[in-house]
Design brief:
This protein is an alpha/beta fold. It has one domain: Alpha/Beta hydrolase fold, catalytic domain (Rossmann fold). The chain contains 13 helices and 9 strands. Strands 1-2-3-5-4-6-7-8-9 form a 9-stranded mixed β-sheet, sandwiched between helices. Helix 6 runs antiparallel to helix 7 (162-171) and helix 9 crosses helix 10 (206-218). It comes from Mycolicibacterium chlorophenolicum.
């Protein structure tokens, strides 16, 4: 069951924000267009929302698809469920699809959202038609970690100044002219909201990040990149050649181990391929999703 809710003033959304009660908790989302379902999953970082990640490409996708843009808990639109927001996000997709009576969907996931898409394709393969990821998955093969973008994100989380936010935003793109005053102010307003900042610190505070890395290294469970051979869905990996958050060498393991994976690399493009390589991204991804198997 879903109903409409007021759009947050910081979202910039012209469409109606909806919310639905799921078995895991209440989730907010946008629902635009008609046709096969494409579920858009956003990344992490200060002031991020699903709408901000994908609003620019939605007109191209709604020509062919029903587009659902999910807002993960703890990023300032859906309520914070507590715990580690990246972990919480992993358990949202199947309950969300159930709540909307959707059996199967294509998934387009940016960075963290791509990781959620991969996990969903492994744990609930009957719910995912095709999968598109935008940077952010796999693991460093040649480049050191944490990357420049992650280190700048940690610096902002520890000491959230406007300049630190600008430094991080500049690391997200190849063309720094995209980091406009409007973008900075929009991100700053949500990134410094006390509840949203607290959630960010549970992810990217230096102590929290180190603890997560230690826990992953000591766990007997396989690391996420070591399970990618279990993804059955046809998968398109998209990447910015100049990504300073998740360097291009991270694509090598998913490209090689996901059985039906294709890789498309956008030149002169950073971490936000759907924004910085907008026209090419729309062309490549809509063609992949509409391709006759």
């Amino acid at each position: 069951m879903s109903h409409t809710a007021a759009v947050p003033s910081t979202s910039g959304a012209a469409e109606t924000l909806r919310e639905t009660s799921t078995s895991a908790g209440t989730l907010r989302y946008y629902d635009i267009g008609q046709g096969p379902v494409v579920l858009f999953l956003h990344g992490s970082g200060p002031g991020v929302t699903g709408w901000r990640n994908f609003r620019g490409v939605l007109p191209a996708f709604t020509e062919h698809f029903r587009c659902l843009v999910l807002e993960f808990p703890g990023f300032g639109v859906s309520d914070d469920w507590g715990g580690h927001p990246m972990v919480t996000a992993q358990g949202t997709v199947t309950p969300f699809l159930d709540a909307l009576d959707i059996e199967r969907a294509h998934i387009v996931g940016n960075s963290m959202g791509g990781g959620v898409g991969v996990n969903t394709a492994i744990t609930a393969p009957d719910r995912v038609d095709r999968l598109v990821t935008i940077g952010g998955i796999g693991t460093n093969v040649f480049s050191p970690g944490p990357s420049e973008g992650i280190r700048l994100l940690q610096e902002f989380t520890e000491d959230p100044t406007r300049q630190r936010l600008v430094d991080w935003l500049n690391s997200m793109v190849f063309d720094q002219a995209l980091v406009t005053e409007e973008l900075i102010e929009e991100r700053w307003a949500l990134a410094t909201d006390p509840e949203t900042l607290a959630a960010s610190r549970r992810m990217y505070g230096k102590a929290a990040f180190a603890a997560m890395m230690t826990a992953m290294a000591s766990s007997e469970a396989p690391l996420p990149w070591a399970r990618m051979h279990k993804v059955a869905a046809p998968t398109l990996l998209t990447w910015g050649r100049d990504d300073r958050v998740s360097p291009l060498d991270m694509a090598l393991i998913p490209m090689r181990t996901i059985p039906s994976a294709e890789l498309h690399v956008f030149p002169r493009c950073g971490h936000w391929a759907m924004i910085e390589a907008k026209a090419a991204f729309e062309s490549v991804v809509t063609a992949f999703l509409r391709r006759v198997a």
